[in-house]
Amino acid sequence: MAITGFGEIAEQLRRSTVLIHSRGQGGGSGIIWSSDGVIVTNAHVVRGPHTRVQLWDSREFEAAVTSRDSRRDLAVLRIDTTNLPAASAADSSKVRPGELAIAIGNPLGFVGALTTGVIHGVGPIRGLGWQSWVQADVRLAPGNSGGPLAEARGSVIGINTMVAGRLALAIPSNTIKDLVSAGPSDAWLGVNVRPLQVPGANRRDWGYTFGLLLLEVEPGSPAASASLLPGDILLGTEGKPFASPDDLSRALLGSSPRILRLEFLRGDYVRVRRVTVQIGGQIASRSSVAA
User: Fold this and answer.
1) Which residues are identified as catalytic?
2) 85: buried, middle or exposed (CB in 10 Å: 19+, 13-18, 0-12)?
């Protein structure tokens, strides 16, 4: 079915898509979220507190990370300019299977590449935890990460993040809206986690049945400084058990230096251990946020 004005829709999406240069780590894509310089992308695209952003007209800007949610793989950047061609965001809760999907990105060095497909579904993916994904059969390649997935009218329904099997997975636009509206945050622990049932959860003295397995601990992160290791299982904060990954995100909220006391399991899981993690303060000390 032909779409009236598809060429114009595609061109507008290209103008709202940026190329992100991650120093020494390749590159990716991002979306101009507001005309005053707010850009959203994947957290894995920008590992440090700063990066370079190239606009559709080839202008380049230094960008500072103002918010990051590593668990949802989202980052918010800001560049010092105005009057940018911002994308419009759709309500991802209204996306339905069978709708046309349009993806824009910068795969393998091709700037502003477009691919189309259809939506397969919206919801969690088996083996990837609780998080909801917009699932589409568009073709993604390295460099597409952080770019827009849009519906037929060009409104963004998600950020392209990864490929599972033959489907592209995008973080829903409503999740992005929540992060942007929350404002600047320096909530950085520096871990990737996976929910699980706590080993030995029948022990009454523990009081824990849910945990977050550390899959990765970023070098130089607060978690690494506190000697947390991949394979550790986070249980909660000072006797307050985690019941979902959101509980860890809430524990990290804030924008000032502070102490987070975590309880966790390690090794043979025979006893609950405790660790104190220093978090926050990146905004004050670096005028940006690292994650």
Assistant:
1) 44, 73, 145
2) middle
d(C-alpha 74, C-alpha 83), whole Å:
24
Nearest alpha carbon to residue 232 among 277, 274, 260: 274
User: What is the spatial distance between Cα 274 and Cα 233, in angstroms, rounded to a whole number?
Assistant: 11
Same-domain pairing of 173 and 199: no
Q: Which domain holds residue 211?
A: 191-286
Q: Which of 143, 92, 83, 80 is nearest to 119 (CA)?
A: 92
Q: Indicate the residue among 148, 182, 216 that finishes a domain.
A: 182
Q: What is the pLDDT of residues 20-55, one digit of tens each?
A: 987 655 679 999 999 999 999 998 898 777 899 999
pLDDT confidence tier of residue 290, bands split at 50, 70 and 90: very low
Tokens 């524990």, residue located: 251
- The residue that leads in pLDDT, 274 or 246, is 274
